[in-house]
Amino acid sequence: MKIVVLNGSPKGETSVTMQYVAFIQKRYLEHEFKIFNIAQQIRKLESDEQAFKEIIEDIRSANGILWAFPLYILLIHAQYKRFIELITERAAEAAFKGKHTAILTTSIHFYDHTAHNYMHGICDDLNMKLYASYSAGMQDLFNEQERKKLLQYSQGFFDAIDRDAPASRVYSPLIRQTSEYTPGTDQVSFDNHGRKVVIVTDAEEQQINLTRMIGKIAAHFAGQVEVINLHNVNIKGGCLGCLHCGYDNTCIYNEQDGFTDFYNSQLKTADILVFAGAIRDRYLSSLWKNFFDRGFFNTHIPSFAGKQIAFVISGPLRQLPNLRQIIEAYTEWQQANLVGIVTDEADDSYEIDLSLQELARRSVDYANRKYIKPATFLGIGGTKLFRDEIWGPMRFPFAADHRFYKSHGTYDFPHKDYFTRIRNVLFSLLIKIPVVRKEIYGKLMITKMVEPYKKLLAKL
To answer: pTM for the complete prediction?
Structure first.
């Protein structure tokens, strides 16, 4: 059978993901694998419509489609997403309809589920028959048991194609019922107290609701507000995945475009950041995705720590809990404070006015208080994952991360917590005695658990 592989790595054939595909190829020589380096060749596909059509024709004649890609900032690479946008822009959806498909990713499992959820939604939107997703760890190919799992997954995909297996849709089609937003004339403004406010957007002239919401929230800040459109930022290309930034956070594009300077001089110096964009398919635009990807020159170091971040979004966010989680996870991992998210989904423009007013008020209030709400699992889990990886297998090439984590106490392993270690040894021995174990688990556990808190409250 013919399997078309859509490669989402900007590194093309030299990507880690493609080594996993090569392993599958070696084990299934009876099948034809046709690989297209989508992310690497996106500029050609944008400018050369015939080249795009040739890929679409191969997809149309294929028995199965494998979406294979590495994770980039909680999702797919910006250039891979641009290809997905082109499918709609050039009305090529019919080539995908009814095709059997599968998803293969490589990562260190940092929000791999949000990337898989997104791609599953895209496959449902294209009316494809998704067999399953497979999230491989970067080093899994070196492990015999993991190789067996990969082959089992691959065989299952081929079997599903052979028997024309049905697939249940997981994500409903998006319903876009947004009405035109007409901002009111009443305007309350809040003193910035000298704090720097920057609104970043990719708004285009025809995106009326988005541009009006940006104007409305900007007017709520009494001090200076800078509005920066990403279309006007000199961004030469997407993240190359070259890891040039690993040593000292210097991007390989530094001398070629203005992104790093824009990021460092205008965003890192801000107190309040408002990110404003419109939903494209099940995310924001590929330009916004490029913004997040290119921000990786900071590697795994939070670059917006202590800042207030608000989102203004045009489109059906309420139907996209996966996108909301991406926003929440990104903000928490950045050690910033998510002030809130306002969309144009309300039927009443006045309600949107009030929401934007409150978003501006809280942004200033939180900035004045220097308030950062406690992280949930989204932030804590991600931080611990990076902590462990940078301490271990990823210390090289990410030398800058290691220096930062070491100097900022990120390596918070309990190596020297001797009190806890002694207590654990002592109680592990005591609970082996039946009468002691019965007393501890029967009566003392609950009361002793809160005893230190009661003592603290008494002192306070």
So the answer is: 0.95
